[in-house]
Amino acid sequence: MGAMSLGPKHWAPWRIEEEASRTSLLKVAYDRGINTWDPVNVHSSSESERMIAKAIKKYHLPRHKLVFMTKCSGYVPEETTWRHMFYGKEMPVSKDYVNQGVLSRQAIFNAVNASLDRLETTYIDLLQIRRFDDETPIEETVEALHDLVKAGKVRYIGASIIWATQSAQLYMQNYYNTLYREEEREMNKFCNERGVGIVPCAPFQRGYVCRPPKKNGTMTRVTEEKSWRRADELIELAISIVHRVHEVAEKKRWKMSQMEEALGVIGKTLTKKEEEYLENLC
Description:
Blueprint: H1 19-31, E1 36-37, H2 47-59, E2 67-68, E3 71-72, H3 105-119, E4 124-130, H4 138-150, E5 154-160, E6 171-173, H5 187-194, E7 197-198, H6 213-216, H7 220-225, H8 236-252, H9 256-264, H10 272-279
C-alpha cells in the first residue's frame, strides 16, 4: 500500500489528513491482508511516515507482522508547508540541508536515522534509493547501504525509478502502468534475467486509469497539479488508451482498477484477444 496520499492538505489538497481517515485507512488495509506499507521520506515532508507510526500505536498493530518500504535521496523540508519539488535548486545549496539529500554516505545515514525516528521502529524492512545520484560514486552509496544492513537498521535494499544500466539491486520499484510501458523495453527484461523483484510504482497512473476520461478532470489532484506539471495523461493517445480500458472493463463487468490488476497482478486474467486490443494503442 502506497502512503503518498497520507499527509496534510496544506501540502497538497488531495492528501488524507483527518485523524479518523488516515488511521482507519491503514487499519482497514491491515485487516484485509495488506501489511506492506510504502512511504517516501519526502512525501508530505515526512508526515506520511509519522502517520504510519500513529496508526500502529492507536490500533496496537504488531510491528513484526508489518513490512515498511521507505526511501531516501530527496531533501526533506523542515517546514511541512514546503513541497520539496519546488525547491530543487535552493535546498541542496542551503546550509540548513547539508548532507540531508542525495546518496552520499552521510546523507543516507541521516535519512535512515530520521525515518526510523518518524516510524518509531528499530529497523526498515526495505530501504530504496529513490532515483540515481550522478555525483556520488556508486561504490560509496552501495557500501553505505550494505553497512546499514550489517548494522541491523535495514533488512534489505532496493531502488526506485532508475535506469536499467544503473541497477544492481535485489529489488526494483519502477514506474509502470497501462499508460507508461517504457519499462518493458529494458528494465523489466533486465530484472527478469537477473532475478530482481519488481513492484510497480504508480500502477494506476495517479488514478487516471481507474475512471472514464471524462471524469478525470473532476479529481482534486488533477485540478491542483495542472498549475505546475504537464498532464501527459490528457493527451489524445492516453485518453484513447483509457477509453479502451473502460470498454473492456465494462464488457467483463470489472472495475477499471481491476484491469490494471489483470495486466500485472495474479487474480484477474484477460484473453489474448483482449490484451492485443489494449496493446494496439499502447
